[in-house]
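Troubleshooting log. The previous structure file for this entry was overwritten by mistake, so regenerating from the original sequence record. Sequence copied from the archived sheet and checked twice against the printout by T.R.
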Amino acid sequence: MNAFQTWLFLTNRSEPLRQTGLLLVLAGGIGHGDVLLQTLRSHELESRGTWAAKVGQLRTLLEQGYPLSDALATVSELLPDPTISAIRVGERTATLSNVLIDEAQRISQNDQSADSGGISVSALLLAIPMLVIVIVGIVSFLIIFVIPKYKAIFSGFGTELPGPTLWLIDISSWLTTWWYALALPLVGIFALLDYFAHISMWHRLQHGYYRLAEHWPRYWVPGILRQLSLASISGHPLSEALDCVLVDLPPGRAATRISGVRHQAHAGLDVITAMRSGGLLTQREAVFLQCSQQNRHLDWALRHLAEAIEVRRSRYMRRLLNVLGPGLLIGLGMMVLFVCMAMFLPVVKLVNDLS
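Regenerated output below.
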């Protein structure tokens, strides 16, 4: 459990652990309305704060006759949007119980894989501001208030300053003149980027996707493939799954692209071919699915491809984090090393000259 999820858990808000528990509660009561409502009532009494209020709203909507997917979509920030979309497909294909269990396992596995191995995104977001503020603050103080005195001091001894020290003095003079014009824009940009990264992490934990993901069509492909597999295994047309996907998809470039794929599918074009022409699948992925369709193993192929895409993304993200963390430390260390060398080289040269 990372820092963001821990805070959500302590403040009784929606997060993967509670969402997994709710899905298992729903899976146990599907098909037995009275049992489901009583179980939700017990879950509400055992919970606190915002989460208890959301579970209570869900129970009330179910008592009023709302379908489960519509009730979950009405209560904001209760379950991730991709999970609600999968539940909508499960209702239409009569596979709801299996969908609830699969989504609980998927959310739990994603939560565990996000915290396993290497430095996490949340740790980087918390560590980077602290490191940058401390190191840049110390270096800026030395450059602005200490380094300018060096030239006057060592000129009195008749000692020529080394090249790195002269460079640092030039940088110090420039920063002393323009620091007021640089400080506010740099701090503002850094704070804005860090704020957006934090908001994006919060959004992923509560909604199931990162901010701005609605403009990246390929981001939604694993979820679409899983929902297509539900339609395939139940014998329903794949275009029905696309209808359910668009209901819960946030507006953006991805929704526009997937809507075009759905129109092509309803016009009679094969869904896999439509996804390939719409840029949702690569040529290799489309050939793999078409071969599986000919061999009557399309449901397995769709699920396998969804997992493969998610594993590949997770691997790339871990590699990026494993490079970004040490790279940041090396960059800050080189800056400190340069300042230390520029400050101590004149002292060493002066000692050698006087001896």
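The chain has three domains: 3-115, 121-211+316-354, 214-296. Archived copy saved in two places this time.
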